[in-house]
Amino acid sequence: MTTTNGKDGKLTVIEGLATLNPQTGDTPRIEKLASGTGATVIRISFTAGQTMADHQAMFPIVVQTVVGDISFGTEEQTVSLVPGTAVHVDAGIVHRLYANIDSVVMLTILR
After folding, report:
1. Helix (H) or strand (E) holding 79
2. How far is CA 30 from CA 16, 17, 63, 70, in A?
3. pTM of the model
4. Distance between CA 46 and CA 21 in Å, rounded?
5. Angle at 85 between CA 93 and CA 68, to 5 degrees
6. Owning domain of residue 17
């Protein structure tokens, strides 16, 4: 991550979004890559079969698959998140993720 301060504010370059950094076990590796005005960017590295069980966020979020294929589900529906597809989720909505193959997800927490 590189941050440049300018007269109008900060520019932050966030690198490594597509880098798979797996861990063993049933759950993915979660890493904060950057935090700035209004947003925090998290990389989540899944190996095939890993899950994030039902949970909810305190703030609205955007979930985007950078590499791979993730099944993203709420009580109402399940969506296949592949590169080029994202979901916006309001605060407090219960959701879950399942990695169909090795995958990297970018989570943006909007605050």
Report:
1. strand 78-81
2. 13, 12, 13, 15
3. 0.93
4. 8
5. 100
6. 2-110
Structural domain tally of the chain? 1
Give me the count of residues in the chain. Answer: 111
Question: Who's near 44: CB < 8 A, 6+ residues apart?
Answer: 28, 29, 30, 31, 52, 97, 104, 105, 106, 107
Q: What is the CATH number of the domain that holds 63?
A: 2.60.120.10
Residue found by looking up tokens 């879950």 in the block: 96
Q: pLDDT tens digits for 21-68?
A: 999 999 999 999 999 999 999 999 999 999 999 999 999 999 999 999
Strand partners, 95: 55, 74
Residues in CB range of 59: below 8 A, 6 or more apart: 91, 109, 110, 111
- The rounded distance, in Å, linking the Cα atoms of 47 and 92 is 26
